[in-house]
C-alpha cells in the first residue's frame, strides 16, 4: 500500500554485567567440565550480575545506549515496552524503573512476559503502536537476569544462563524497503512445565517450604525443550521467508535466540543457511533470555555484520511455551 507506515529501528543498545563466569569457574562448584559444557551448548562463559545489580539497571544502560544511537532524548519517547521474566520486583514493572532512571516523564511503560520470546513479542506489540500512528518513538527492551533464579546445584540448567539487556528505538517510516516487514507470534500453554519457575506466584506463594524445596529456581525438561526449540526455529525461519517472498540468498543475517549452538545449527541447516549468515555470540554470553536477540543485534551492528539495507530475520522461543519471529529491513 503506497505511503503505508512501518516501524523501523533507528537505534540499538545493549548492556551486560562486568562479572564473567567461565566454564572453569563452574567446574569448581559442579560435577562438570569446560569440554562437556562447550560441546553440548557452545557456551564458554557468561556474564553474571553482582550483588545489588538488577534487571532494570542493565535495561537502563541498554536503553541509554539505544537512545544515543537513535540520536534522541528520553523526553521524546512516547512508550516503553520491556520484555522480561526476571523483573526487579513482582510489581511495579521494571519498565517503570527504566522510565524513571532515564527521565522519560509520564509516558506509558509496561513489562511483557514471554520469556525468551519476550523481545520479539515486545517488538511486535510496539510496532503496532507506530504503524497505527498512536505513537512515534517507542523504546523496546529485552532484559533478564536468570542467574538470580538458576539453581547452581543443577548442572543441567544453571550452565546455560547469563544476564544482559538489549534495546531498540522504533520510529515511523514510509520507505518501502525499510522497517519491520513481518512478525509472527504463537504460544502453547499445554507445555508450560517444559520451562518454569513454580514458586513465588499465586499457585505456590512464597513460604519456608517453597524455599526449602527450591521451587523458586528454573525447572526444565531438557530433551523436550530441545525438540520444541528446533521445530519452532525451523518453522519460524520458513514463515518469515515465505511471507516476505525471500530465499536464503535474500537474507543477510539470521539472529536467533542464543539458546544452544546445536539447536541453532540443527534448525538453520534445514534451509542450508551458511553459518556465516547466522549470528552467534552464545559462546560469550550464554542464554540471556529476552536480552539474547537485541544484545546480539546491537553487537552485529557494531561489528558491521549488518547495517543499512540489510535484511535480517530474528527468531525466538521460550517458556510458555512461546515463539515469535520477525523479518526486518534495516
Structure, described:
The chain has 330 residues and is an alpha/beta fold. The protein contains 10 helices and 13 strands. The strands form 4 sheets. A 5-stranded mixed β-sheet has the order 1-7-6-4-5, sandwiched between helices. Helix 3 crosses helix 4 (94-102) and helix 7 crosses helix 8. The chain is globular.
**Which ranges are low-confidence, i.e. pLDDT below 50, for 5 or more consecutive residues?**
none
Termini gap? 19 Å
Shape: globular
Helix content: 25-40%
Overall SS class: alpha/beta
The level 1 CATH classification of the largest domain is Alpha Beta
Read across the widest sheet, the strand sequence of neighbours is 1-7-6-4-5
Number of individual domains: 2
Mean pLDDT: 97
CATH topology of the largest domain: Peroxisomal Thiolase, Chain A, domain 1
What are the SSEs and their pairings?
Elements: E1 6-15, E2 20-22, H1 23-27, H2 34-41, E3 45-47, H3 55-70, E4 79-83, H4 94-102, E5 109-112, H5 118-131, E6 138-145, E7 163-173, E8 179-187, E9 195-196, H6 208-212, E10 219-220, H7 222-242, E11 253-256, H8 261-269, H9 282-285, H10 292-303, E12 311-318, E13 322-329
Parallel strand pairs: 4-5, 4-6, 11-12
Antiparallel strand pairs: 1-7, 2-3, 6-7, 8-13, 9-10, 12-13
Helix pairs in contact: 3-4, 7-8
Keywords:
2 domains, Peroxisomal Thiolase, Chain A, domain 1, 10 helices, four-stranded mixed β-sheet, five-stranded mixed β-sheet, alpha/beta, 330 residues, globular, single chain
Amino acid at each position: 500500500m503506497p505511503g503505508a507506515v512501518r516501524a523501523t529501528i533507528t537505534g540499538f543498545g545493549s548492556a551486560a554485567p562486568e562479572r564473567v563466569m567461565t566454564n572453569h569457574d563452574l567446574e569448581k562448584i559442579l560435577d562438570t567440565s569446560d569440554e562437556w559444557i562447550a560441546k553440548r551448548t557452545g557456551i564458554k562463559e557468561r556474564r553474571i550480575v553482582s550483588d545489588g545489580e538488577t534487571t532494570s539497571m542493565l535495561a537502563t544502560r541498554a536503553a541509554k545506549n539505544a537512545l544515543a544511537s537513535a540520536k534522541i532524548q528520553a523526553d521524546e519517547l512516547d512508550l516503553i515496552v520491556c520484555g522480561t521474566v526476571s523483573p526487579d520486583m513482582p510489581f511495579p514493572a521494571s519498565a517503570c524503573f527504566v522510565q524513571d532512571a532515564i527521565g522519560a516523564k509520564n509516558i506509558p511503560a509496561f513489562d511483557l512476559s514471554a520469556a525468551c520470546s519476550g523481545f520479539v513479542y515486545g517488538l511486535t506489540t510496539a510496532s503496532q503502536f507506530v504503524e497505527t500512528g498512536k505513537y512515534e518513538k517507542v523504546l523496546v527492551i529485552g532484559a533478564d537476569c536468570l542467574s538470580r533464579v538458576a539453581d547452581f546445584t543443577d548442572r543441567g540448567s544453571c550452565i546455560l544462563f547469563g544476564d544482559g539487556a538489549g534495546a531498540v528505538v522504533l520510529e515511523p517510516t514510509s520507505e518501502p524497503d525499510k522497517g519491520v516487514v513481518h512478525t509472527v507470534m504463537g504460544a502453547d500453554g499445554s507445555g508450560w512445565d517444559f520451562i518454569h519457575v513454580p514458586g513465588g506466584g499465586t499457585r505456590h506463594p512464597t513460604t519456608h517450604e517453597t524455599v526449602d524445596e527450591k521451587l523458586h529456581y528454573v525447572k526444565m525438561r531438557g530433551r523436550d525443550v530441545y525438540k520444541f526449540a528446533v521445530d519452532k526455529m525451523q518453522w519460524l525461519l520458513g514463515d518469515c521467508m515465505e511471507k516476505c517472498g525471500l530465499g536464503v540468498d535474500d537474507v543477510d543475517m539470521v539472529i536467533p535466540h542464543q539458546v544452544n549452538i546445536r539447536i541453532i545449527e540443527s534448525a538453520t541447516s534445514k534451509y542450508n543457511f551458511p553459518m556465516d549468515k547466522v549470528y552467534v555470540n552464545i559462546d560469550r554470553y550464554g542464554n540471556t533470555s529476552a536480552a539474547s536477540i537485541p544484545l546480539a543485534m546491537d553487537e552485529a551492528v557494531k561489528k558491521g555484520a549488518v547495517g543499512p539495507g540489510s535484511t535480517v530475520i530474528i527468531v525466538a522461543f521460550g517458556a510458555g511455551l512461546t515463539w515469535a519471529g520477525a523479518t526486518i529491513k534495516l
